[in-house]
Amino acid sequence: MRLGLLLAIVLVLGLYTQAAEINTNKFGSLEVVTETEHTIEKEIYFSEDSIVHDHVVRAQHQKDSLDQAKVNMQKMVERRIDKCEDSTFPADDDFQFLPVFVGSLVNDSQTIEYEGTCFKSLTLKMEHLSTDSVKVTVNARNKASTFCREALFMSTTLRHHVEYLFFEKTHTLVFKNLDEDDIIDLNLTGVKTYLFCHGVVDSFVSVFNTVKLFLGGLGANPKYPIIGSHVPEYMEKANVHFVKEALGWEMEKRDVTEVVLDESEIHDGDFLAITRLDGLDEIIMWGTGGRVGHSTVALHIDGELNIIESQDAWYWPKHKIQRNPYKQWIQYAKNCDFHVSVLPLKDEYREKFNNTAALEWFESVEGMPYGYHNFLFSWVDTEDENLPPTLPKQFVPVAFEMFGELLPGVMETFFLQAMNHRLNTTGLNFKQVVSEAAKRDTNLSELMAQPELDGWMYSDGYSYVCSCFVIGVYKAAGLFGDMELNAVEFTPKDLYQLNVFNTTAVLPEKCKQADPDLPFCQILGKYRMSMPGYSTIEPYAHMNEHCASAAPEFIRPEGC
Predict the structure, then answer these.
(1) The whole model's pTM is what?
(2) Helices within 264-312 (DSSP H only)
(3) Which distant-in-sequence residues (6+ apart) come within 8 Å of 15 by Cβ?
(4) Residue 387 near residue 69 (C-beta atoms within 8 A)
(5) How does pLDDT run across 205-235, given as a tens digit for each residue?
(6) Beta bridge partners of 152
(7) What's the number of CA atoms in the CB half-sphere (13 Å) around residue 23?
(8) Are 51 and 28 in contact (CB under 8 A)?
(9) Residues 519/482, Cβ–Cβ less than 8 Å
(10) ∠ at Cα 341 (247, 538), nearest 5°?
(11) How far apart are CA 519 and CA 541, in angstroms?
């Protein structure tokens, strides 16, 4: 994946003197900068869609997220997430941080002139240099004050760059390693350029990368091939450090990394709780306060033990709501370095579990897509008490607005259909959703916090993420009787804290030898899994529809 980037580095080192500054930016691209009296020249070597597929960049993003969270938390304490005096929106408006669209550079004859917040005169031009590179020239003149600076966000559909302008000079940016699809996209829609108000760009980049990690890491971008499904050791270590800093969980190494269970030791309805140290699960944990990133459930089909799940990760060989014989599934799990624990149902719930009804329901949704439509909404139950500190609520609508412009198809799937359900409308785009919400005396944050409802039909079927799917199986199997629950409101943490699991089960001796203190059997993983609050919350009607989960305490209000 990074071969082209490696060759670029070799070339750069051979051609540039020690005067050139070489670094990697927050989007994972290599930058080579040279400066003269009148110009700043920068070459940007794009790697692949690195926040999704490059473990090094994801590890760095985790570090950046922790650093940015500390900054944001301090600003929250001081009641100033950021200053945006030059915004045209009111100070308490969600969109006060929205970057201003400057224009799109589509061809070489086009010139964009704009008055910035720091430089009164900004002129932008583009030039095609070769089949894989273009040059954008920015002339920054008439600086308003000595210490001000400009922040420009430049983007095609998949390539992103932030350029800071501090000096009154000519800035040349050469974007390299563009592929054929990039050039086609660039010729169609151009290099879109946005101007940030003062002081928000670092927070925005953190949000933007995190949202992109969600979209791409879950398989929304099939463009890039799978290079390998194993998690490198350095990525594991980066995630172990991350969960310690973000969640206060110091993961403990195990002496045994696999416990082989006979299929007879796994029963219908047993919950297989999963963690993968890949950077995506850990961001989900940071948002929910949980210690599980993926959920599956056991079900016998035609006498054979199967694992059924909603799954769409890029590293997994199959996608959508699916079944896999246990023998095959466990091999898949080992290939992608899953940590897996088997959580057995209590005896009374095991007796309740109706295999026929569960199978009937499963077959009615089998093959439907992973629940991208409501991925966020099992987690986001409140206006401002669910997001981790790296995602201030002020910036989330901005990120969605940007993705709506850059990736309209993805945002239609990931966000807009769910908002239309909440408004009982169809087909409204982002700006129309915001406008319609305002007419009803609400805003986007309040709309997102409204409960997701079972039975909402999306454009391609019902929508279940992994944990919601497991609760859907439990509902169909009769575990909750006539109790009104919305399966689509359950996170992995909500699932394992549900008091339906046997905390005093007699475990096989091999499980107790591997992990003497665990109340369940961990069958895979280098590190010991831990689930605070395991099987402690009694089921009740409409549970988990209004629950806060704010870091660092992640306190769940009673009865939420």
Answers:
(1) 0.73
(2) 280-288
(3) none
(4) no
(5) 656 655 555 554 434 333 433 345 677 777 7
(6) 163, 195
(7) 7
(8) yes
(9) no
(10) 75
(11) 27
